Amino acid sequence: MRGRHFNAFYRGIVRPFMTAEFPRQLSYTRFVALMPRCAVVLAALFETLKGACTGLSIADATPLVVYHNLRIERHQVFKGVTQRGKSSTGWFYRFKLHAVINHRSELLVIKVTAGNVDKRKGLLALASNLFGTVHP
């Protein structure tokens, strides 16, 4: 799989290797257009599957690349949803996935933010409803 973005994952893994799980696969463009319709259902599923806070939590954030840096100006699918930002490795256009797990590796809280949101700010907001120790 070339690239570390969702388009490469969808076209390189889901389409060729997951036809049994997804027999009526959509084009990538159509899939991205329909994704917002699933947000409420996915949120409800997460609420039923998430673990309980045990007093020892581990938090981290990881980037979810939207486009390669050279293609930021050409692609407008997520325009207005995510923001352009700069890190020590250069410019980026991505989302950031913030997650908190308990010591049993059960997800407690997840949140997706624009890529230019500071990791510490996103994680502080997630940890506000937890008790005990949270290790970043």
Concise overview:
This protein is of the alpha+beta class. Helix content is 29%, strand content 28%. Strands 1, 2, 3, 4 and 5 form a 5-stranded mixed beta sheet that branches.
Provide an overview of this structure.
Helices cover 29% and strands 28% of the residues. It is of the alpha+beta class and 136 residues long. It folds into 2 domains: 1-40, no CATH class; 50-135, no CATH class. The longest helix is centred in the N-terminal third of the chain and has 12 residues, at 6-17. It starts with 5 loop residues before the first helix and ends with a strand. The model has no long low-confidence stretch (mean pLDDT 76).
Kindly list the characteristics that best describe this protein.
about 140 residues; alpha+beta; 2 domains; 5-stranded mixed β-sheet; 4 helices; about 30% strand
Order of helices and strands: HHHEEEEHE
Class by helix and strand content?
alpha+beta
What is the general shape? globular
How many domains is the backbone divided into?
2
Distance between the termini: 30 Å
Tally of helical runs: 4
Name the beta content range.
25-35%
Number of strands: 5
Q: Main beta sheet: strand number and arrangement? A: 5 strands, mixed
Mean pLDDT: 76
Residues in helix, %:
25-40%
Unreliable parts: none
Radius of gyration: 17 Å
Reconstruct the topology from this structure.
Elements (H helix, E strand, L loop, with lengths): L5 H12 L10 H7 L4 H11 L6 E10 L18 E4 L2 E13 L4 E8 L4 H9 L5 E3 L1
Parallel strand pairs: 1-5
Antiparallel strand pairs: 1-3, 2-3, 3-4
